[in-house]
UniProtKB/TrEMBL annotation:
Active site feature: 113
Protein name: N-acetyl-gamma-glutamyl-phosphate reductase
Superkingdom to which the source organism belongs: Bacteria
Family of this protein: Belongs to the NAGSA dehydrogenase family. Type 2 subfamily.
Source organism: Jannaschia pohangensis
Main location: cytoplasm
Length: 303
């Protein structure tokens, strides 16, 4: 039996990457619209009706509108529109109980790219009681320019962008609400993202004064052990040895995320998550969520 999948926004950065991961699969039939129809509401409504699952790869407002014409079709939304919305299941399979919730969900909100790295580092520590919920977390990160979709890609490829720059410096980044909700934080974290003048791949960092954590018991080893316990047996997330150079492009083209605990071994600790913003940060996780929803092997079409 095949599953009919409609990617709304297939011509965009995330949509194309999902299409590439699905188009050779014998268990998936892609419903595709031509250039003339891809933004036509009637054509899209028909495509939704024909699909078992639709994947929205659209700007937030267009994603909200798409839900209104999608009927009963199951949805995975790659945008930020529904990540903390009532009635939506958060599409981060690594979180406790989330695979079972995604498997039966009608509406799945795919996790954001910076949020993937941030929550992956925070949640094992809040669940283990190493970080209290009101911990004043400090997160930084850098992404390749494909993270900003077609418009940012055009700016960089025209040679009009700096080699490196900070943005969202007003502490207003759109991923903060989901980072708090699913990272287990009640206090708003500091989060400073950046863009590098390279296409793809990212790192996210969580900076900790480990000696100031409650009970002063959260040394480097305990933090690393909590991460290893949390991701034991996970198909895509691993904990690596600390190292001098961490390349944001190291896992490009894969659905993997590699965590490592850097620092001086005792007091000053930085946890690092390396992932592909278009892989584990977007399209890879969307396909992983699809696999879970349709009950096929979780890593089908993914490496
Ligand atoms: N890039 C990334 O790393 C990540 C992106 N996301 C999210 O995924 C979503 C898509 O992002 P991304 O692929 O980067 O963006 P792009 O700008 O590359 O692609 C968006 C696509 O949506 C199309 N589109 C816009 N409005 C409509 C509409 N009303 N009906 C049908 N199609 C429409 C655009 O058409 P046109 O080609 O004509 O512009 C474009 O093809 C966003 O919400 C983004 O925040 C999530 C995680 C990571
Ligand atoms: C480099 C860059 O601009 N990145 C995007 C995040 C991409 C992403 O994850 O967007 P979603 O929230 O839709 O998932 C940004 O910071 O707005």
């Amino acid at each position: 039996m095949t599953t009919a999948v409609f990617i709304d926004g297939e011509a965009g950065t995330t949509g194309l990457q999902i299409r590439d991961r699905l188009h050779d699969r014998s268990d998936i039939r892609l419903i595709q619209l031509g250039e003339a129809d891809r933004k036509d509401e009637d054509a899209r409504r028909e495509a939704f009706a024909e699909a078992d699952v639709a994947i929205l790869c659209l700007p937030d407002d267009a994603a909200r509108q798409a839900v209104t014409i999608a009927g009963d079709t199951r949805i995975i939304d790659a945008s930020t529109a529904h990540r903390v919305a009532p009635g939506w299941t958060y599409g981060m399979p690594e979180l406790p109980g989330q695979r079972a919730a995604i498997a039966k969900a009608r509406h799945v909100a795919n996790v954001g790219c910076f949020a993937t790295g941030s929550i992956a580092m925070l949640r094992p520590l809040t669940d283990a009681g190493i970080l209290p919920p009101d911990h004043p977390a400090v997160l930084t990160g850098v992404s390749g320019y494909t993270g900003g979709g077609k418009s940012l890609i055009a700016e960089h490829e025209a040679g009009q962008a700096p080699d490196f720059y900070l943005y969202a410096s007003g502490q207003s980044h759109k991923h903060v609400p989901e980072i708090m909700a699913y990272g287990g934080l009640t206090r708003r974290p500091l989060f400073q993202p950046a863009v590098g003048n390279y296409a793809q791949g990212m790192i996210v960092q969580l900076h900790l004064h480990a000696d100031l954590l409650p009970g002063n018991v959260a040394g480097y080893a305990r933090i690393e052990a909590a991460l290893r316990d949390f991701y034991a047996g996970d198909p895509f997330v691993s904990v690596a040895q600390s190292g001098d150079r961490i390349d944001p492009q190291a896992v490009n083209g894969t659905n993997r995320m590699v965590l490592s605990v850097q620092g001086n071994g005792t007091t000053h600790v930085t946890i690092v998550a390396a992932l592909d913003n278009l892989g584990k940060g977007a399209s890879g996780t969307a396909v992983q969520n699809l696999n879970i929803m349709i009950g096929t092997q979780e890593d089908a079409g993914l490496s």
